[in-house]
Write a structure and sequence with these properties.
The protein is an alpha/beta fold. It is built from 14 helices and 10 strands.
Length: about 325
């Protein structure tokens, strides 16, 4: 049998399958072939260039940029959302939140213990976009103390809402995010209610975190529970560029405060780095250096950001 005879049959099979949408079993019956022969033939068609499958990429999907981020920073996955060239802060948060909601709804496993860093308006946007799921996760745990002096309970609400969406229990962290002193932090961390939650940080399978700048977010300012100007000056002098769970790091991703200086009750940077999967939600070009520091510190497995910011990160 000549090469041309072989190709004639391969093209016939490919035409029936790809152009006429016939099933492999139908082709096998029509041409008096085995279904396994048809399957092998379709594989050969692609290998020999008789069939070329092209993925049509919409203009608002950035596969190449996502791959470039993954390769440049060694992360598992990058998700880049379309927000236009001059987006508002609200538009960025909504787009990232929507993409994060889809990611969480499609990737979480029933046995996952999910941690949430809950001083983030972008994470709040994610929770607002989510719908009740049949995942039945192991639980949702609050990774950062949340109740500020002014009675703000945003962190508690977010944790409970996410747990409700995932149909699982919630572990709340009954403390402020930033205590008045390191001594007060130590006392609270050793109290039974707080210690029980903090002990579970090591068990978190998926941590959903925001990335903050040195300047506190409006959400954090409104809570009344953030660093004094004196502490912010100290952080700046040590090269702090951003934070995860209010633990600040420099441009290389290294912590800028020692354990005996840090009054924050929340998942430690070392624990975040060791977590199985960390999903970071952050966008806006003002956060470029903070995101870059977090990437260099190897804290992130999945980054969800916007197109203009991703484009700047690639230039680093």
């Amino acid at each position: 049998m000549s090469k041309q005879d072989e190709q004639r049959l391969l093209v016939r099979i490919a035409t029936l399958y790809y152009s006429e949408n016939k099933k492999q079993s139908e082709i096998a019956s029509l041409l008096h072939l085995s279904q396994s022969f048809v399957s092998r033939a379709l594989t050969r068609c692609q290998k020999e260039g008789l069939v070329k499958i092209t993925v049509v990429q919409p203009t608002n999907i950035f596969v190449s940029l996502e791959k470039a981020l993954e390769q440049q920073f060694g992360i598992r996955q990058a998700i880049v959302v379309d927000v236009g060239e001059e987006p508002t802060v609200a538009a960025i948060k909504h787009a990232i939140g929507s993409a994060a909601a889809h990611y969480v709804e499609t990737r979480l496993r029933p046995e996952d213990l999910v941690g949430i860093s809950s001083w983030s308006s972008t994470i709040r946007a994610m929770v607002d976009e989510m719908h009740p799921q049949n995942i039945r996760a192991a639980g949702v745990i609050q990774l950062l103390g949340g109740v500020g002096p002014n009675g703000n309970v945003q962190a508690t609400i977010l944790t409970q809402q996410l747990a409700a969406h995932l149909g699982c229990p919630a572990w709340l962290l009954p403390s402020q995010s930033i205590e008045h002193s390191v001594e007060e932090r130590a006392r609270l961390v050793n109290s039974p209610d707080v210690a029980a939650v903090v002990a579970k940080f090591e068990e978190v399978d998926v941590a959903i975190v925001g990335i903050g700048e040195l300047e506190p977010s409006q959400l954090l300012k409104n809570s009344g529970n953030y660093y004094t100007e004196e502490m912010l000056t100290l952080l700046s002098s040590r090269g702090a560029v951003g934070d995860i769970c209010l633990h600040y790091f420099d441009a290389a991703g290294e912590p800028v405060l020692t354990d005996d200086e840090d009054p924050v009750i929340g998942m430690e940077l070392s624990q975040i780095r060791a977590c199985k999967q960390v999903i970071a939600l952050a966008g806006g070009q003002d956060k470029r250096n903070a995101i870059l520091g977090a990437l260099k510190g190897n804290y992130i497995d999945v980054l969800i950001t916007d197109y203009p910011t991703a484009r700047e990160l690639i230039k680093a």
